[in-house]
Amino acid sequence: MFKTALRPLAFSAAILAGAAVAYAANPMVGGGEMLETKNIVENAVNSKDHTTLVAAVQAAGLVETLSGTGPFTVFAPTNDAFAKLPAGTVDTLLKPENKAQLTKVLTCHVVGADVMSEALVKMISDDGGEHDVTTVGGCVLKAKAADGKVTLTDENGGVSTVTIADVKQSNGVIHVVDAVILPKM
């Protein structure tokens, strides 16, 4: 859940100009159309850029949860984001004996609320340039907006940038990110 309650949306062009990211009605993500009528898992399986994430969600046993009613905000790392991890990390996390650790990593990408980028940018602005985002996995991410980008800094200092924002789902929203968010271990 976010540190502060969601506030009514009243945005100025100046706030939004500071954090412009890619927007589209029904955006294509990884070559697949993302339909608002489908849930997070149904849409993710259609993205060629998220096959590693889908495999991880399946290995962690989170398919049913992320197919549920939500609402959820998912910061969805791409295959390239997973490829940036040290060699062997993904293979190790996908092993059955590491399910708890994989679940922790994945749930640090999920917020138990439906948060569009405009609302997040407003919270960042209202909090003086940095907003704490608490994930369902208990991770606290530092959200910032600068140079036309929204970034999330994890508990280890790793920075993830939102590359595609506001991909609406029937049970929430996906924001595509370029790095894997890691919990403090």
TrEMBL record:
Residues 1-24 form the signal peptide. Keywords: Signal. Residues 37-181 form the FAS1 domain. The keyword Signal applies. The keyword Iron does not apply. It holds the Pfam family Fasciclin. InterPro entries: Adhesion/Biosynth-related, FAS1_dom_sf, FAS1_domain. GO terms for cellular component: extracellular space. PANTHER family: FI19380P1, PERIOSTIN-RELATED. This is Fasciclin domain-containing protein. The lineage of its organism: Bacteria, Pseudomonadati, Pseudomonadota, Alphaproteobacteria, Hyphomicrobiales.
